[in-house]
Protein 1
Amino acid sequence: MNNLKQLPLHAFHLGNSAKITSFAGWEMPLSYGSSVKEHMMVRENLGFFDVSHMGEIIVKGPQSLQFLNYVLTNNLSDMSNGQAMYTLMCNDDGGVLDDLIVYRFSSEKFFLCVNAANVDKDYLHLNSIIKSFDCEVLDVSDKYGLIAIQGPKSTRFLEETLQEKFSEIPRMHFVQKSFFNHLCLVARTGYTGEDGFEIFLPIEIINEFTNLISSSFSEKSNAWVGLAARDSLRLEAGFCLHGNEISENISPVEARLLWAVSFDKLDFIGKSKLEIQKDNSDYGKVLHYEALHRRIPRKGDNIYFEESIAGKVLSGGYSPLIKKPIGTAYVQKDYVSYKQKGSWNADLAGNMIPINFTAPVLKKMI
């Protein structure tokens, strides 16, 4: 794992029996034991995630709103102060450079949480455009850690532990709170499909904060959750992972993310190409599936309709909720209309695994 960055809490995770893996240039906890148990703990109770590898970028100045409305797909004019919004950053061809959450302090200050692997690329991209606008871009990733507390019991746990009113924060909103005499950003956001919070903490207090929540968790089991369960949780919820369901080669139109694209804006980067793609129906689609076999299709495996290659697996994993392999696939445009017809299989090294296209697991359970 040479040249990989380490989380500020790296020693803490090793002390909690974390199995470490490389991800997006970082040494990250993969699991602390059973990833299936970690997954179900988040679904039924709560879990802690150290996602301090994520990047943080501040945009501030008189024309911050105009600038971000040009570089991001969603309409930030629709946001109120204190609101969070999912959006995409596209290139001129409509490919997705990154997906992110943007937090609005005011029309002159925004806080962006971007994917770890894309921090440098995003920062350079933003700075290449900002010259026409009266604002500035600051990469503050080294100043913050990020702890997510996710699950149906997360609100009660945080209120009892930190003696603050977390229940008063609406979903997809944020507030600033002081912990250990440092101002922190507390957002009711997450990547699991459960209620929960993501707390951006100054690096100086991340150890104190972590020790407090860990020692306050009353059950015998460890509450920490690694990347393996984070991935299975987001797959069940139907959330995209950049580099898989969205990329510079898979547009928001193909990924069925049009709800995060505001074509009513005057202009934004990639708008014209995305409009042409959408209006001409000239695209394949990202679809969710369940596999009818215990073996798990993995990224890059071919998808067959009858005897023809019709697409590729983008993500594959195991769903502890339905006890089946699940995943996503890019299906080529000529085959999309057949998604509920005929025979569909994923090719695992010559073994054909039957699959059914379906809604994401959590959406079927609503």
Note: The mean pLDDT is 97.
Protein 2
Amino acid sequence: MATLAEHAAETAVDFLPLLGTDHVEFYVGNARQAAYFYRAAFGMKLVAYAGPETGRRDRASYVLQQGKIRFVLTTALRSDTEVSREVAAHVARHGDGVRAIALWVEDAAGAWRETTARGAVSAQEPATVSDEYGSVVISSIRAYGDTIHTFVERRNYSGVFFPGYRALPEDDVARPTGLLHIDHIVGNVGWNAMNEWVDFYSRVMGFSLYQHFDDKDISTEYSALMSKVMANANGYVKFPINEPAVGRKKSQIEEYLEFYDGPGVQHLALATHDILSTVSSLKRQGVPFLTVPHSYYTQLQQRVGRIDEPLEELERLGILVDRDDEGYMLQIFTKPVEDRPTLFFEIIQRKGSRSFGKGNFKALFEAIEREQEARGNL
């Protein structure tokens, strides 16, 4: 059953004020080719690069941006440095996947001190990097699996991304699709581990419980999971945490944990102001989405009431709709974007609603199960 908790903003002190998501870094096997996919399919613009041509000999990184969404794709070039070995080992174990969720802060050293004092394991002590455009302070702590949170302080920097990165000219490959910002980032953890990580985000980072879904909310005939949504004090950053629940067959979370070889980021929800236009563009550019049966749409208006979007367009594109007491939201989910059935994306438009589509769970999870069955993993 879903519950809406009070925001941590109402507590006395926010010891970890966050300004939003700075970027998400992916470790990948071939960053040049992965960057082309996100440019051609998602419309992300290539804005910066670091590699041998900029003095970094052991790895290459491509920075992609659309709206406030910023992805960094990093690949190892050699095996003779600690960082390049770390990148290569991450890819060997997990396939292409999210390594770092970077959070924008005013004080990266203070964020590191506050979180490590509350039990976080340090991944990188505060460090300052500089070039002719100023300086950036970064620090990192460990989260679930091999995922880390990096704190980024960039108030004294006017460059394109970070010192050591070279700005690139206008991208003639990217065709923007109307994506605006990251709405939330979902992590999958192992059996009975959800509450451990809920406690981590509450105790270490000052987040509060935003919504809760149990296996009665998120289940089908065959599989189930449980989820708790954690939000920071101002609500700019939301992290749903999923764990498997007992079902007749293997759940999508179990499949993820098996193929990712441990906990990690399951999906990123990307916001748009016009989901019909955004999804139409993404489909034209080759992004594959899950589909739901016609029966979902025959009952839609009875379930959610009046909406602005034409029903036939929603069905043509496969977009789901749900309503709460503050409005409604529209969402759709891609198929996994890797060969492993791991990372995928959600496209979301909020029209007042702050929920996560509880009314769509059954249809969505049945669609995922059809894909699992086709892979032989249900």
Note: The first helix runs from residue 31 to 42.
Protein 3
Amino acid sequence: MLGETRYQYLVSYVVNDRIAVDAGCLGFGCPLATQKLVTDLFLSHCHLDHVATLPIFLDNVFEQGPECVIVHGSDETLSVLQQDILNDRLWPDFISLSTPDSAFLKLNELTALQPVPVGEMLVTPLPLIHVVPVFGFLIEDATSAVAIISDTHHSSGVWQHLARVPNLKAVLLECSFPDQLDWLADKALHLIPKSFAAEIQSLPASVRVIAIHIKPAWYEPVVDQLLALGLPNIEIGLTGVEYQF
């Protein structure tokens, strides 16, 4: 998780150096040497806090030659990327500028629940419920699995899927607003501490649950309400911290 230690302004995660999930702050908040190790970028959805520095990241890591970053996303997310970001208005059209001999990026359309191999890891897109099409991601190797569930409302399907994952070590789960803004969370399709607790009730107590995507304006009440749940496996996510599972 990248950026200031306490507040989560933008969303990016780097897993085992090679995989990045979302590019909210990847191009600004991550050392260049680390950015250059990323081979595969998985986009959960098209909202700005998840894609804001994508063009900067692609610019930072470009090297002339056939090897380039693969950007994975849903059909809807990749369409926004092409029409609204890399469109020769907001940013140069890196897709059209790419050639087989010198590419800025390659695109890969994701299918729900269809794993994507990246080296020794598998990344499985998990369908969630939000105001735009969105994926969470289950990232697995031979011994551990971690799920990143950002920007979602109640979604029973994802928990049914995770219940069948034998080596699940941690779930990073969004909690955007405090309980008193339940009306806003219902409209924006986000979680509050009360619904956060309901979502994770089927998880074994051994699974670490790390709260992410807490809106900075509501950070203190959200954290207080999460900790008041009294659940021993809940942690408050910190940016700029390396997690090991």
Note: The domain at 112-235 is CATH 3.60.15.10 (Metallo-beta-lactamase; Chain A).
Protein 4
Amino acid sequence: MKVALIQTRTPATQDAGLAHVLPMVRKAALSGACFIATPEGTNLLQKDRDLLLPMLKPVGEDVVVGGLRAAALEFGVWILIGSALVKREDGKAANRSVLISPQGAIVATYDKLHMFDVDLPTGESARESATYEPGDRAVTARAGDLKLGMTVCYDLRFPGLYRALALAGAEVMTIPAAFTRPTGAAHWEILMRARAIETGSFILAPAQGGRHEDGRGTYGHSLVVAPWGEIIAQLDHDDPDVLLADLDLEASAQARAAIPNLVNDRAFSAPHALTEKAVLT
């Protein structure tokens, strides 16, 4: 099955975001992709909270979501909006992954569970929880023959989530991202390969890349990892682009049969917390 990952450098407004992503989605569809995935923050990226919040719309009113629903219908393809930054039903903000069918219908959504609240050694800091309300549930969904586990960016660092998705039947983990440049250079590839190997799953990781209008820098290097851990497609840069890959959908079952760690797991008691150094006598 041919899939496409869209690597973007999303602007700071929804109208500009749609104009940016739509030509690449069209290119991917015309190249034969049946499933197209975009990065985190596909509709807009604006790190200034005071500028961002007034622009957010409910998912049904967002111009990028609407435009990509129309594109899915026009080309007869599945589109995963890696995430759209939207207003929830309760008025709070959400970082929401949206799966669109070839009929243009929204068939599944997932709100990012883990908030990126960090202080990096480089001096960069982020407090995603100050803007977004985290989700409270893991989500699996079918996209034709693909059995998806839907996640977003920082979720990558929580392997228990991916194990739960795999045990629920997911064979393809979607990890759309807007990774920072320092964490991307250090951890992007190795963490993606680890999640693939641990769960015997394909990893589809479309990424934001480059220097954005709001001043942030993102890593790019979108990639596809097979269930045995090998990278089968990857961009070696941070520029907007389309990455195509052919998935052998039998590979997940083969990897899980070879290394059956999903069924070999055992319950155990949690260790006591280490509160002080042991004293040798």
Note: The domain at 2-264 is CATH 3.60.110.10 (Nitrilase/N-carbamoyl-D-aminoacid amidohydrolase).
